[in-house]
Amino acid sequence: MKKTLLKTSSVILLLFFITITFTSCEKEKNTIGLIKVVNSSGQTMSGVTVVLNQQNTIPGTDPIENLRKTGTTDATGRVSFTYKHEAILDVNVNKTSGNDTYSGSGVIRLLRGKTEQITVEAVKQ
């Protein structure tokens, strides 16, 4: 009787610790950069090509990985990018509409597990 009780309680205790271990692990949140593009009047612009890229600022160094990503703004003038690591990235925006070309630039600092947003103004060239 004591052996059965000991085995049962050991199994229950083991299952309890396994359950606690796997359910208490916090999933790492995504690192997201959200870019909003506006024109010189402050109106959002859709269909704008947005490029995020890390430039080497120290001669002879290489980035951790290729961080270059390209996307296009939606109807609300926004596009988002998901990364694994923190980064400081250059943001370049371009759009050609008929004979008009719009461009702009900025810098975004991505922090691990956070969503960072910047607004870039695309001006007519």
Written account of the structure:
This protein has 125 residues and is an alpha+beta fold. It has one helix spanning 2-23; strands spanning 31-38, 49-53, 69-72, 78-83, 87-97, 100-110, 115-121, 123-124. The protein is elongated. The N and C termini lie far apart (87 Å).
Count the DSSP helices: 1
The first-level CATH class name:
Mainly Beta
- Structural category is alpha+beta
Sheet with most strands: strand arrangement: 3-2-5-6-8
Q: SSE order, as H and E?
A: HEEEEEEEE
Mean pLDDT: 86
- CATH fold topology: Immunoglobulin-like
Known CATH architecture: Sandwich
What would you give as the CATH superfamily?
Carboxypeptidase-like, regulatory domain
Number of structural units classed as domains: 1
Shape by Cα distribution: elongated
**Major sheet details:** 5 strands, antiparallel
Q: Strand fraction band?
A: 35-45%
The low-pLDDT segments are none
Radius of gyration: 24 Å
The portion of residues assigned to helices is: 10-25%
User: How many individual β-strands?
Assistant: 8
In whole angstroms, the N-to-C terminal distance is: 87 Å
